[in-house]
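Replying to the earlier thread about multi-chain prediction with a worked example.

Input:
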Amino acid sequence: MSESRNLAAISCHHQPGKISRVACHECGLAPLCLPLSLTDEGVSKLDSIIQRSRPLQKGDYLFHQGDIFDSVFAIRTGSIKSYTITDSGQEQITGFYLPTELAGLSGLNCFTYPVSAVALETTSVCAIPYIRLEKLFDELPALRQQVMHSMSKELRDYQDMMLVMGQKSAEARIATLLVNLSMRFKRRGFSAHHFRLSMSRNEMGNYLGMAVETVSRVFTRFQKQGLLRVEGKDVEILQPAALSTMAGSSASTMQEQRASH
Amino acid sequence: MSESRNLAAISCHHQPGKISRVACHECGLAPLCLPLSLTDEGVSKLDSIIQRSRPLQKGDYLFHQGDIFDSVFAIRTGSIKSYTITDSGQEQITGFYLPTELAGLSGLNCFTYPVSAVALETTSVCAIPYIRLEKLFDELPALRQQVMHSMSKELRDYQDMMLVMGQKSAEARIATLLVNLSMRFKRRGFSAHHFRLSMSRNEMGNYLGMAVETVSRVFTRFQKQGLLRVEGKDVEILQPAALSTMAGSSASTMQEQRASH
DNA sequence: CGTATTATTGAATACCATCAACAGACGTGG
DNA sequence: CCACGTCTGTTGATGGTATTCAATAATACG
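Result:
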């Protein structure tokens, strides 16, 4: 087995076999998450409204498209995909969410969630009832700013996706996704060059607007070129610079750098 | 000349030849714009921080990608496109903004604007300095909600765009854009079936991830099928139902209905 | 350990991009 | 007001990239 870690292995003082009820001030992810720039008192207030439940198993839903909107979710460990489905049955994955990222924001002030969110692996989340969060916004401007920051970051991510889907070749799309994941892993303390994909080839293809077969072929090509070493979902980036070049110096790399200054 | 109106013709008590300094409480767009659900006092406070300047001409910029972020902009009349450009020179249009819509939100809490915004025709906007807006959030929860509502709506729009670019054919993309514009015009009191496109074929193609030539061909095909009557930028939708079917019953149609319930 | 799902590979096809030529609209200045 | 050049839009011919269909291989799961 490779040494790349699964995101489900991330833990803020996770105690195996027990529901992890780690408070925000004990959580290692706090500096990257909502508590960022909150005072201790603010963190306590936020903490008091957060609902922590037992970890979700792969395939468990955070919410379904059409459900009444009531909470947003901060990913603690694991990963989530969100997707829309049209009445004609077309599915489109709209995003992958990693620890510290907020899922469900697009349902805000909307009666129902416009997407579904489902765990890609064993995943634990902090559920934040929106009504109570809204109330905290009055007392904690920094919290409000943090949520708005998350929303504008997600807007920028979608803008980048339009560039990806509008202009990039199949190879560039895969390269972009890998570079993007790499940066996000790195920011969270994981290896930037060796990780495990929690999504299937099918899900990657759907997300990037290409057929599964094409995803597979691109991975094969990248391996033959010596860019990657791939074993199923385990990926090692052998030539990060070359992969970034393939991805095409996109706005997203610039933005991620900006965000992590 | 056709009877379809240009968005630049929309006016809230616009006085020709003079800078329109119409206050929010006099503006016909208020019920669809930020003032929605504000008290009279709240509207006054918002009004006091809004900067109204002379109308932009076609090609004038609201802001450039990389400029220091300082304001968001509510479109009053006309229309705006926003786009990113990569360092390799690839351009991608990320959105078109119509009256009452807010441009610049993706730069929020980001040091610089991640996109450029430029007028597609004669356009007037309300500039809202973000620092001052932020301060108002404390006093006016409804204003804050309204801004967050705009952001989540924009998130949903991008989610829809992923479906469009990820799965839809060239014909379905054009149909989707036309149906989407149609609904937005209707909501703003314009004809849903007869309007003037303020963007070029090139801009449509870029936005939708397809070549200009393909845009042109699709328009020709739609005309031959009797779906549309097209004269340059003037478009009449002859068979709205058929066009919606072509668009593929998307999440966006559902959402727009939801939003305007 | 067997079955179902997921991933890979090959071959044929389709859709759209690209290249190229031309037509029309627009705007400027003579 | 017309001549001119430029930009935008249309149409045709061709080719490339990625999809689709099909079969096999590998993996996950009960």
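The helical segments of chain B are 40-49, 130-139, 141-167, 170-187, 201-208, 212-224, 240-247, 251-259.

Feel free to reuse this layout for your own posts.
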